[in-house]
Amino acid sequence: MNDLQFDPARPLDLVAVGRLCIDLNANETGRPMEETMTFTKYVGGSPANIIIGTARLGMRTGFIGKLADDQMGRFIRSYLQKDGIDDSQVCVDHTGAVTGLAFTEIKSPQECSILMYRDNVADLLLSTDEISEDYIRQSKALLISGTALAQSPSREAVFLALEFARRHNVTVFFDLDYRPYTWKSAAETAVYYNLAAEKCDCIIGTREEFNMMENLYNVTDADDEATAARWFSQQAKLVVIKHGGSGSIAYTADGLNHRSGIFPAKVLKTFGAGDSYASAFIHSLMQGDSVSEAMRRGSASASIVISRHSCSDAMPTLEELEAFLQSNEEVVSGA
Ligand SMILES: Nc1ncnc2c1ncn2[C@@H]1O[C@H](COP(=O)(O)OP(=O)(O)OP(=O)(O)O)[C@@H](O)[C@H]1O
Ligand SMILES: O=C(O)C[C@@H](O)[C@H](O)C(=O)CO
Predict the structure, then answer these.
(1) ipTM score assigned to the predicted complex
(2) Nearest protein CA to atom 6 of ligand 1, as residue
(3) Which residues line ligand 2 (CB under 6 A)?
């Protein structure tokens, strides 16, 4: 059982804060970036992908972020609007900052990588005066994502959003979303991740991301239970540790753990797995499902997205997810 509370009187279900970017995914798969000639453009950035996923599943969503004043920024805004995501708190930079670009290389289903262009990006210029307490208090839940903590002023903006969420009993989900290229040093990264995580109700990350927070370098046998216990001594009521193709494990504050397997997929590329997992997991939990059911749905959504070309556009609708669950079996191997 999890103790997360969602106030039914709030008009919004989930508000995300953080980066809105562009993914340029290689059209020619099975070859290195050097030989890739064409790419397809999609909205990207982990919190953007997650909010798109939850909107597709029927949640009432909003986004707090900053866009570049360029064609890419306008493309992102119109995409959010098309999916019914409230963009009233998405502001526009006027200093000449640019939209972050992620070029993806799909050498094989197992060998995917991302080449980032993130100098002077607009998303990291979100500032505290662009965070509305009144907006945050209208939502049942807030999603934060680690990359927004990498630099000021975005870092302080996220901490202010966290403070407003705490003040108004808005449940906070933290998707760790650790992207090393955005950070200066491992020690600095861990400090800010820990400061944020101690204020969050539900923490979702891969084993490697939790290792980073615990300053465990080159450790292959870290203890999931000890990790969860560390966060239960703070604000957390639910800790989800993902193990890629081996599934995931969630811990609840009552001392129970819940294991999920995977839905075998015809993998096209692995990125986007985490974001699609998070969106269906959060949606399911907020519908009142058990933690185990939420994990099952997260795994199913991940399986759908890794078999498709994009991360955002590939997010399933509720009908697609239900149909997938009807016709596919989860395989549990033990995370
Ligand atoms: N090869 C796979 N086949 C089927 N499902 C998978 C596979 N890899 C991952 N998943 C599903 O996706 C979930 C999240 O995967 P993972 O641990 O790779 O997250 P992540 O590293 O955050 O993803 P991302 O690559 O998007 O950053 C897993 O718990 C699992 O349910
Ligand atoms: O911004 C990034 O780090 C890349 C994302 O845009 C991309 O969609 C992804 O990797 C999803 O997990």
Answers:
(1) 0.96
(2) 245
(3) 21, 23, 44-46, 49, 102, 114, 179, 271-272, 274-275, 311
State pLDDT tens for residues 240-271: 999 999 999 999 998 899 999 999 999 999 99
In a domain, 222, yes or no: yes
| Three-class DSSP category at 57 | coil
Q: Give the number of the ligand closest to the Cα of residue 260.
A: 1
Range of the domain at 262: 12-19+47-63+129-327
Ligand 1 site, CB within 6 A = 206, 242-245, 247-248, 262-263, 265, 267, 270-275, 277, 299, 302-303, 306
Nearest Cα neighbor of 139 from 48, 63, 240 is 63
- CATH number (domain holding residue 171): 3.40.1190.20
307 in a domain, yes or no?
Answer: yes
CA 122 to chain CA centroid, nearest Å: 19
Number of domain units in the chain: 1
* 279 occurs within a structural domain: yes
How far apart are the CA of 155 and the centre of ligand 1, in A? 27
Q: What is the rounded (10 degree) CA torsion for 316, 154, 197, 80?
A: -10
Indicate the pTM of the whole model: 0.97
